[in-house]
Specification:
Blueprint: E1 10-16, H1 35-42, E2 45-47, E3 50-51, H2 57-66, H3 89-95, E4 99-104, E5 119-120, H4 150-153, E6 156-157, H5 162-184, E7 190-195, E8 204-205, H6 207-210, H7 233-241, H8 251-281, E9 288-294, H9 313-316, E10 320-323, E11 331-333, E12 337-338
Parallel strand pairs: 1-7, 1-9, 2-11, 3-12, 4-5, 4-7, 6-8
Antiparallel strand pairs: 2-10, 9-10
Amino acid sequence: WKVERVKRPHILLLMADQLTPGFLPFHGNRVVQAPALVRLAAQGVVFDNAYCNFPICAPSRFSMLSGRLPHSIGAYDNASEFPAATPTLAHYLRHAGYRTILCGKMHFIGPDQLHGYEERLTTDIYPADFSWTPDWLKGPAYRPTGVSMRPVLEAGPCVRSLQIDYDDEVEYRGTQKLYDLARAGGEQPFFLTVSYTHPHPPFVAPQRHWDLYRDADIPPPRVAPIPYDELDEHSRWLHVAHAQDLYSVSPAQVQRARRAYYGMVSYVDEKIGRVLDVLHETGLADDTVVVFAGDHGEMLGERGMWFKQCFFEDSARVPLVVSAPGRFTPRRVAAPVSLVDL
């Protein structure tokens, strides 16, 4: 008999930071405009109950890449080192003959900034050192990251920001690498990760994306703020850790932050769409499995809470789509999954 060899597909991992599924059209949001992700979801497998394994950037990504739960690799905060000796999916794919490339944010802490990737096209956006090390004995008011409610109070349209600068570079480097890979040809498959920092706060959006929405279109949080003395212990900790005891946030400011978030989702969708367009332009799409994932969510005012670091739904649930129409029939999966399943 004749054995047919199945060509190893290329793999493109697209990531957005702090994107909660409730702000995506294919998860029921009728206001947000995200046409690129809608197209990807329509031809892919959409996981309706996907969760991160630790709702904060670095531990979530370490867990995802290693396929191990955070407690097993000592990943508890954004100053936890990701040891170079920990195998990652990039190591495994590289061993299997893949060319492994990282473009954009991964928030590696420690001297190893590759973790199995052969090349890195950009620096990271946040420090790789241990300057954000928490001291739990000092209590929740000790904030080495400088987190506060200012991103909510100062929300609105923006000409440029660190995040916009960074994601513009990620888009350019990622698309250019796809052109380079297409020109090079050959039989070696690639694993390319393109990871954006949007819609991570601050809550600011380019004017063009801000103008896609009106204040009247933006629904308020589903769950109103809960008085401090009625909060669970962890929520009380976060209330102080996020400096909510020092700032007052008005309903109008909540609305502006949520409107900015909508704009930021549209902004990053545009960036993702550009990468997907180049994948098609270069003829690579038919041989590429595309995975889109978030690293954690965003509370965005639900229960009066912001950011992440809790296991409420908006913080812990993530978008996850796997698209390869020639290999996987488009459908929706209701079973619970997490990022370690990748």
